[in-house]
Amino acid sequence: MDVLIHLFVGLHIIGIAALLGGFLTQMKAMGRGTARFVPAMLHGALTMLVTGVILVGLNQADGHHVNAVKIGVKLALLIVILGLVYVKRDDETVDKRLFGLVGLLTTANIFIAVLWT
Question: In 10 A of CB 110, how many CB atoms?
Answer without folding.
Answer: 15
